[in-house]
Design a protein that fits this description.
Elements (H helix, E strand, L loop, with lengths): L1 H61 L6 H18 L16 H4 L1 H23 L3 H22 L4
Helix pairs in contact: 1-2, 2-4, 4-5
The structure holds heme C.
Organism: Photobacterium profundum (strain SS9)
GO molecular function, one term: iron ion binding
Protein name: Hypotehtical protein
Length: 159
C-alpha cells in the first residue's frame, strides 16, 4: 500500500527534487557571477588608483636634475603592470555598480585604442628608464597622460 503510493508520487518527487537542484545551481551561478563581477571591478579600480598615485611622483622625479632611476623604475614597473592588467579588466556586463559606461562594449574601438595607447606609453617610458634616457621616459609618460581625459569623458560616468 505504502510502496504503491510512493510509486505513484515518485515522478513528482523526482521532478521536485530536480527543480530544487536546478534552482539551487542557477541561483548559485548568479551569486558567483555577481561576486566575481565585484572582484573584477574592485581590482580594476585599484589599478587605476595605482596609476593615479604614481603619476605625481613619476612627473616630479623625472623633472629633477639628478634623477633617482631606481625610484623611477619602481614606479614605472608598477604603473605598467597596472596598465597591462587593465587591458583585460572590462569583461562584458561588468558595468553594474561601477563607473564604467555601457559604451565601452557598444563602441569599443576608441576605448581599446586609448587603453593600448596608455599601455604603450608606459612601455616606452619603461624602456627610457632602463636606458636612463630621460627624453624617452618623458615622451612615454606624455603619451600616457594624453589618454586619461579622452577616455573618462566618453567611457566613465560622472557617478
Ligand atoms: C581606455 C580608457 C581609460 C583610460 C586610458 C584611463 N582611464 Fe581611468 N577610468 C576609466 C574607466 C572606465 C573608469 C571607471 C572604472 C570603474 O568604475 O570600474 C576609470 C576610473 C579611474 C579612476 C577611479 C578609480 C576608482 O577608485 O573608482 C581613476 C583614479 C582613474 N581612472 C585615473 C586614470 C588616470 C590617471 C589615467 C591616465 C593616466 C586613466 N585613468 C586612464 C577609463 C580609462
Amino acid at each position: 500500500m505504502f510502496t504503491q503510493k510512493i510509486a505513484k508520487y515518485l515522478p513528482k518527487i523526482i521532478k521536485f527534487g530536480f527543480a530544487m537542484v536546478l534552482g539551487g545551481v542557477s541561483v548559485a551561478a548568479i551569486a558567483n557571477s555577481e561576486e566575481s563581477n565585484k572582484q573584477v571591478i574592485e581590482a580594476r579600480q585599484q589599478n587605476f588608483k595605482t596609476i593615479e598615485q604614481n603619476m605625481k611622483p613619476l612627473n616630479s622625479t623625472l623633472n629633477t636634475d639628478l634623477i633617482d632611476w631606481s625610484q623611477v623604475s619602481a614606479l614605472a614597473i608598477t604603473s605598467h603592470q597596472a596598465a597591462i592588467e587593465l587591458q583585460s579588466a572590462f569583461p562584458k556586463g561588468s558595468d553594474a555598480g561601477s563607473r564604467a559606461k555601457s559604451s565601452i562594449w557598444s563602441k569599443p574601438a576608441k576605448f581599446n585604442t586609448l587603453m593600448s595607447q596608455m599601455e604603450q606609453g608606459y612601455a616606452d617610458m619603461l624602456e627610457g628608464v632602463e636606458r636612463e634616457d630621460t627624453a624617452l621616459a618623458k615622451l612615454g609618460l606624455k603619451q600616457v597622460n594624453g589618454t586619461c581625459k579622452g577616455c573618462h569623458r566618453q567611457y566613465r560616468s560622472a557617478w
